[in-house]
Amino acid sequence: NEKPSALIMIFGATGDLANRKLFPSLYRLFEKGNLSENFAVIGVARRELSNEQFQENVKKSVQSAASNGNSNIDEFASHFYYHSHDVTDSVSYGYLREMAVRLDEQYQTNGNRIFYLAMAPEFFGTIATHLNEDGLTDVKGFKRLVIEKPFGHDLQSAKELNNQIRTAFSEDEIYRIDHYLGKEMVRNIEVIRFANAIFEPLWNNRYISNIQVTSSETLGVEERGRYYENSGALRDMVQNHMLQMVALLAMEPPIKLNTEEIRSEKVKVLRAMRTVKDDKVDKYFVRGQYGEGINNGEKVPGYRNEHMVDPQSNTETFVAGKLLIDNFRWAGVPFYIRTGKRMKSKSTKIVVQFKDIPMNLYYKTEQTLNPNLLVIHIQPEEGITLHLNAQKTGNHMNATPVKLSYANTGIDGINTPEAYEKLLYDCMRGDATNFTHWDEVALSWSFVDNISQHWQKTQAHFPNYESGSAGPKESDVLLAKDGLFWWPID
Length: 490
Ligand code: BG6
What we know:
The chain is α/β, with parallel strands linked by helices. The protein has helices at residues 16-31, 51-62, 73-77, 90-107, 124-133, 155-166, 184-194, 225-229, 232-250, 259-272, 280-284, 417-429, 438-457, 473-480; strands spanning 6-11, 39-45, 80-84, 113-117, 143-147, 174-176, 208-216, 285-288, 290-295, 298-300, 318-324, 334-340, 347-354, 373-379, 382-391, 399-408, 465-467.
């Protein structure tokens, strides 16, 4: 195993992401021996904390990730330091630089630095500019910027942000996180497609009827009303996670499995995606917002009654859409996507529906054969299921659906730290394949902007689905118009 050494600065070190995901993920890397002894972390945040207090926080946050009786937690936490910071003040960056230089030396990090921005996006640009101007990016080794979503709010703001961070970092030093790309089964899409002789020859418009990608959540907006009001499901989930999964499903086989080739194939998919704008939006996209209902046996309020949410809010908590990819492989095959909060179950699944066979020799009166499906279970179960038809013993001339399943055992994938663990390790090793390139970000925004612009102009009839349901009925109509239906997600 490669054991990269680096000094990691985490901006937003007292925040939720750092505590819930980043510290436990770093700990797991440490525990598995994937992190060399030559690493140090500087936690950066506004609050006043001593190194000791910070180390206590770190220990608390990794406790549940520790599998070996916690024996090495103290040693792990001893690599952590804290700097109380003002993101707009050069003097504060000066102190941070001195601290970094000292730790570079002490931990022999080869001058490698990772800057992880795990905080409110309004400061991303400011921080990047200061890192450059105040000399923190003058390093002997590598320098990398890891940046969390949202990467802008639309194409225009994403461009501005990108220009700002590009003054301090080159494109190949920027690691834009999409945590779906850290999920085991999202990474597996490529393997299922390109390591099997039986799928790729059928992976096109001659044999595939449609592809359905669903990511449903049971949680509501929780404490994130302020952010979510300005985002909505389209920006929060579709622009990034959903389109990334579509790109992986639709891309051509890359000539090599390296960062550049894979990303460039994904970019081509996004370029081929048919623009949906103005009046067309209503034909191809459905938006929804949850009303009150029952969630896990409890009565829950509607979105408009959530904390920090406008009682008249027009923000969508559900999106379903039909995407068309206008290239040779996919012409005519709809990719349906669907995502929503406060739905029936927490589940992310991809269903590839194959076309019906040319002639059904097995039907009895009205009965039709079930189509073949390849289901990729992203979470909470991880695995694949192939739906076939076979004859049950003794049942002459009768085809019955059967399923071949493979389940990746273990982890409950509900946003587990594992995704972050993989992404952090990738970043430390300099592998940017599972991070989004600027071209992908830009193309996704321009696709999504057309839709949000249209939605902004018109008042929606919200709420239009009950909490704990499968979303608004218009979402079913979207497929019914094409003679199809959503395959059940649970
Ligand atoms: C995040 C969104 O990117 O993804 C959240 O901001 C959403 O609103 C989350 O809940 C879903 O991630 P996961 O891994 O639980 O499917």
